[in-house]
Amino acid sequence: MATAPIQAPPQLPAEWQDFWALTKPRVLSLVVFTGLCGLLIAPAHIHPVLGFTAILCIALGAGAAATLNQWYEADIDAKMKRTRNRPLPAGRMDRQSALHFGVGLGVFSVILMGFALNLVAAAILAVSILFYVVIYTVWLKRRTPQNIVIGGAAGAFPALIGWAAATGHVALLPVLLFLLVFLWTPPHFWALSLFVNSDYAAAGVPMMSVVAGTKATRLQAFLYSWPMAAVAIAPWPLGLSGPIYGVAAVLLNLAFLGLAARVGFSREADPALMKAERQLFGYSILYLFASFGILVVDRLWYS
């Protein structure tokens, strides 16, 4: 008597933790923080409920972009050690669920921002999501070593959105904050890529460290740090901030440039070591939190 073939058990529904993981919570914390800072430094009073709604929309929009990024990149995430345990490459979720979740979050965040706050903030939020998903993830990521340079604009929008949510318009100060994050992204991300270079090489992603080599990547990280520092300090001489931020910005950027110089002229080839690169990557996160946080303190103190 023939036995029936053994069938694989049906895939279990994803847990809520998997949907949460799709939003990239660590990155989300920085996005929410910069968006909140943009809201707080704006020269306008906003009801706390509307302020909370604006930050919620920024968080949902960023989570949508991160989810759609993982939906599209599930194949290369499976080839990289630091990403292969994400919900999609690990098989804990099907791609369709991730797609629906990402699109739903994105559409809801933009509509809510438009109805609760204003159309300017909603439009910038929509552009930020589309930029990260279409321009960076789909178009640039697998095609050019300049992917993170141009794609860095996607992560630079939150402060601009926060300001626009409070005021309904855009001004010079949030534009400078946009440029700060835009110029901060290459040295921050290239420092990371230098000690996970084998991951990108295995996945076939043309990151600068894979295509141009570690020496050129180190030099580029160092060079990008200079215009970043200039933009970071600019609000003080332009009269957009007070000395609290100005002095702190000078000190924070001197430290950043010092670490970037160590990376730029380092000859360390062992990814397991690369102490200078790891220090720059770690400091760059603290640097951005501190820069935005001190600017808020400065604006509130002198307002």
From TrEMBL:
Protein name, per record: Protoheme IX farnesyltransferase
Transferase found in the keyword field: yes
Gene: ctaB
HAMAP family: CyoE_CtaB
UniProt keyword annotations, A-Z: Cell membrane, Heme biosynthesis, Membrane, Transferase, Transmembrane, Transmembrane helix
Membrane topology per record: Multi-pass membrane protein
Pfam families hit by this protein: UbiA
Record family assignment: Belongs to the UbiA prenyltransferase family. Protoheme IX farnesyltransferase subfamily.
Organism: Sphingomonas abietis
Top-rank taxon, per record: Bacteria
Note from the entry: Carbon 2 of the heme B porphyrin ring is defined according to the Fischer nomenclature.
Compartment annotation: Cell membrane
GO molecular function, one term: protoheme IX farnesyltransferase activity
InterPro entries per UniProt: Protohaem_IX_farnesylTrfase (IPR006369), UbiA_prenyltransferase (IPR000537), UbiA_prenylTrfase_CS (IPR030470), UbiA_sf (IPR044878)
